[in-house]
Predict the 3D structure of the following.
Amino acid sequence: MAVKNYSFPRQAISDSEKDLEWCKQNLKAITKYVGATSSGQENSISSRDKDINNYNLYNGFINAKDYEYITDQYGIPYPAQMANFPLISTKIDLLVNEDADRPLDKKVKSINKKAAIRKQNFKVSLVANELLKEVKAEFEQKFGVKAQTENDNFPIPDDIDEFMRYEYKELIEEVCQDGLDYLIEKYRVKDMFRDGLRDFLVTGKVFYKVYVKNGDPYVRRIDPRTLIWDKTVQTDYLEDAQWVAEERWLTINETIDEFREDLKEEDIQKLEELKEVSSHEGLSNWNSEFEWVDYSQNKGVRIRIVTCEWKSIKQLKFKVSENKHDKNNPFKKIVTDNYKARKNEKIENLYVDDIWEATEIGGQVYVQCRRRPNQVRSVDDAGSTPLSFVGCVHNHTTGSSKSLTDLLRHTQMLYNIVHYHIELTLARAGGKAVIYDVAQLPTNIGMDMQTVMYHLKTDGVIPINSMQEGQEATKFNQFQQVDFTLSNSVQQLINLKLMLEQTAGQISGVSPQREGAISQYEYVGNVQRSVVQSSLSTKGWFFQHNEVKKMVFERICNLMKVCWSNGKKAGYVLGDGGYKFLNVLPDIALNDYGIFLGDSGKDDAMRKMVQEMSSSAVQSGNLTLLDAIKVLKSESLSEAEAVLERGLESMKDMQKQMQEQQAQQQEMMQQQQMQIKQEEMKEKQSELDNRIKIAQIAADSRIEVAEIQSEQKVNSDTMKEKNKLIVETSKADLQDQLNENQARRVSQSNLNK
């Protein structure tokens, strides 16, 4: 149906003039582009037809009219059927699954002016503490009083610049990081990004909508086939669009569930009337100017819902007052639009971006016609605010957006045609046939064609009669053969098929080596270079999608300021099965947040290298098996690096303890050996002393005997016995002492063993 040409109303008007009728005029001006076709022009607002065809090609649906010049050349169908043999979908699925397996390394940083000043002050305090370390130690030693400085309890890192650049995090940044992880897990954002990358590769477009739902920042993937926009050609990204509109077809119940808080009683009754539509004739009351309602026996009733967002202009009035303390910075106070300046009062006007939204249901119901709530504005620059839609159009700046499916479309068609000819050749194939002249059929002897074929197959003989009655005698006809077996064209078609597969790999950048097709004679170095070159060819797709991911994360973090300004408490399950608490304080609303998103391809390669190094570290004893398992389970390079660092530090501490224990054991062994040597020296000295004593006793005995002999010469036998007894007694005592020392030494030796 023809659509009227509505124009956009004026935007730089007061808020009192921006009523429901004004919102309807904006809606009508945008709705006229909904359903518009591209007409073969790449720079049109809508390229829905091309996107639909691309998705049909990706899903394996083919348009028979595209192949009629092959299948119906003479108006009679051939004994073969044109079918789709997936060449595009396998390469797109490979890239999508690669991105899903890559780590999502993200870091949240506060980037507003006050946050930068806080970090700079903290860095200055660390530098001051390092410079005053010796002075403080000398002061404490001299006066016995501990000197207090700012951030005195914080340990001073080895390299302050590197620590502040990469490792330092404020508490609010850690809380915001935890909040981002919580939302990613709760709303399955990773799965949404996987579908978004598929949209990007199939249509060349990827779109998300970031808004507030149930008190939380929420992300929803937008089907590129349902979105139209008006954006500049200076960038590939959607953030600078003037307006964006999304078209959806929902059931009655889905519509009521989504807009239940905005629908009135009369709106519900209008929607209920649509349930009674049971034929195409009943749609005329609703589709008078535009197709708002669709009905089919298979799907039932569907309602077209168009949600629009556009950038309007808001005029801010400021009453300027003199600042006695600083005349260059006067006081400014916002006043209402209808404020009338008094005498000698100075009024300044400032124009800022103002986002409005409106939704039209079925062409008759209007909801959420309002200034969009929860508009994210920077703390340092409150004049600009983006739309809630985030996205990218590949190569939009060149004026001709081409997706990966667009690049491979003709290759896919040729690939299907080659398979069609292979099937056609197989359908024509058969055995060898004999050319038989029916004039030579021996009918005079009662034989028909079936009988001749019977003798041909059973006896191997073809009976003929060249002299039938009433006919001229003919020369004997040599029977010829026609070969219907497969010809060499099949091999040529197979070679052509392989050539098209190679061409598709060159165009898309997905080489056979990257898909796992490696020849047994291929060198490892050649395979690695091929995979690296293939990664470089497809890096552009991943890079732009990562930029869109970064924008989505920044919108989520900055929406936390609005949603969680009163605080937030929650808990969520981590990827490794752990549990983490989320405790957000109200000061989250006082900062602007930026996102650092790592290069997923580079991080994935480094993560795999770290995992390989962790295996080597386990074998060499520098890392425990438990830490190696944690490294393998890590989802990002930063997490793997942190786990590996903690594991190496714990292993160093363990090795240090083991070295200390070994040193203590060696010291104890040395002490025991010294004690044993001392005991041996004591025993040797005791034995020497005993020998001296024995010699002294013997000498004393001889002297005593001589004296006795000189004094008394009588009873010599008695005296000899007496002396002998004394000597033997002394020797026995000395021997007992030697035995006792020997037993003590043996016992000490057994104890040491």
